[in-house]
Amino acid sequence: MNDGALLDVRGLAGGYGPVKVLHGIDFSLPGGRITALVGGNGAGKTTAMAMLAGLLEPDSGTIRYGGSAVEGWGSARRVAAGIVLVPEGRLVFPDMTVEENLRLGAINRQARRHTADGMEQVYAQFPRLGERRRQSAGTLSGGEQQMLALGRGLMSRPRILLLDEPSLGLAPMMVDLIFEAIGALAAGGMTILLSEQNVGLSLELADRAYVLENGAIALSGSGRDLLGNAEVRRAYLGL
Amino acid sequence: MRLPAPRETVPLLLVAAIAAILPVFGSDYYLGVGFALFGWIALVQSWTIVSGLAGYISLGHVVFAGIGGYVLVLTWGAVPVWAGAVLGALAAGLFALLVGLPVLRVRGPYFVILTFGLAEFAKYVVINIENALGKFGRLILGGPQVETLYWAMAAAALAGTLAVIATRRVRLGAGLAAVREDELAAETIGVPTVRFKLFAFALSALLPGFVGALFVLRTGYFEPAQAFDPVISFTIVTMAIIGGSEDARGPVLGALFLVVLSELLWASFPQVYMIILGALLIGFVLFAPNGVAGLLDRLRSTGGARAAT
User: Fold this and answer.
1) Do A108 and B175 touch (CB under 8 A)?
2) Does the domain formed by A30-56+74-235 have CATH 3.40.50.300?
3) In this predicted model, what pLDDT tens digit does every residue of A68-81 receive, in sequence order?
4) Which of A24, A43, B137, B160 is spaced 20 to 30 A from B37 at the CA atom?
């Protein structure tokens, strides 16, 4: 296990039945840092996220969180232990109000006690959600829904936030706003795994990054180093 | 402790008031109507736990009533009457636990069809068992009096109403609401979806088992095609559509509406009754998808808005 890693992944492999998406990837998340998992469509980012969140059983590999091996834990147990996924496509509950969505974020037993505090913190971080607290989530803009999904994730009192494609389909201004919020969370000590197709922005924000290609790690390094890497610049940044 | 909301007090008071008033007339007819009404309320409330709160629409809820009735006749004479009825409820709950794991893996229309098929399957299994045993209907002699059955069923209706109210208040209810809206999202926020669905399914089977046992006690005989009659499942869904299934009000309102309507029309105009029922169903599905309870909410909110301006 790497020094100071809160989550450590070794040889993670698997996919959907006969379709193997990941072919044994290694990475680790240092506490209080942003780690980015970047790559194109179909590289396996969402699959890796689903395996970390306990939504998809890997064929092989180990996931160590703190001192414990979490493979075999269901998603509910992982959320309660502090591993929380904000899924791709946001998946807010469209017919429920903003407030109901947030309240449900705190459904695990540990977080439920802190529902009121958590809600206050989320509204402080995203005042726009506070303004729209009685509005149903389906009527929010894409950016607001992403804020809500992030806020709902925070309501679970995570130690590790897994953010799957938070910028997907958002207007550039909203992307900036969301990335700013992610930066602020990390500055506050949150451990974050950011999976993104927006490679440039993610590398700028991330302390460490892994480039995923065809289900394997092609490159890794600090965000800054990868930004300067000729291959990354050509393949992902179009420079 | 939160203060009880009207959506909680209204159905409870309604059931209690009807239960208290009907015996005043002192006629078996009213007790019989009340017995049926409370039976339906208990069935629709139970159905609401899994189909209303969690959104898994069961079209085979009669299977639990049928099992309850069958267990009652099987244990008839061997155990006291009420123990037989309770055993019926437990057997129905156990059955739900056993079939729930595979059945609750499918959603939407597949779940609807699967529950319907399961109930039909159970019906024919029981029919074949009875045929093999050479039994063509079983008589139950010396069951409880109408008035006793009436109170037992009123208690079941009250228990069903309380079950929906309680479920909505606790973590289970919040989790089921998340499952209904988006099951994958529910899983990502940490709802133990499999466990919650299974628990809700078993919970929604217990009272129907008891109700089915009381139905058999009331008619005085058990006949599988009648005890497992799919029309009972359809009626439960119809009542839930007409009354609403978001909270405990809908089942009470829906059952009350349909029982009163059928009492008024069935005897004299059976054809007209079915036509009116069909028209009502279409009307509710199209214009009031949350049933009478939803209509009341809408009236109140527009009334409130008007009062505010």
Assistant:
1) no
2) yes
3) 999 889 999 999 99
4) B137
